[in-house]
Amino acid sequence: VQLQASGGGLVQAGGSLRLSCAASGRTFISVAMGWFRQAPGKEREFVAAITWTGSHVLYADSVKGRFTISRDNVKNTVFLQMNSLKPEDTAVYYCSAVSGPIRTREYEYDYWGQGTQVTVSS
Description:
This protein has strands spanning 2-6, 9-12, 17-24, 31-38, 45-50, 57-59, 67-72, 77-82, 91-99, 111-112, 116-121. By secondary structure, it is mostly beta strands. A hairpin with a 6-residue loop joins strand 5 (45-50) and strand 6 (57-59).
């Protein structure tokens, strides 16, 4: 599976961005998708994940109520809508994929995109 993330950029605090992650290379069936992020000097951390059907989603506490993960299985694309952005959301955001159920740990994911930079100014 090849993953291509896009949609990052520079935004002021309180603003919004929508990240996209397009998958290719194999069937998207039964593949859970996730978003992680890594800020400078910090470890990569879980942000959100969604099951193949979209019926179950998980969020890190730090983004609950502000971020929304969704997917379009016809287009093999997963999205991360980020609202009410804060400076502490500044990081490189990575999309990831794994066959089977939803997961939240970095080591559980098999495929990774190249990352897209999100910078939130105060």
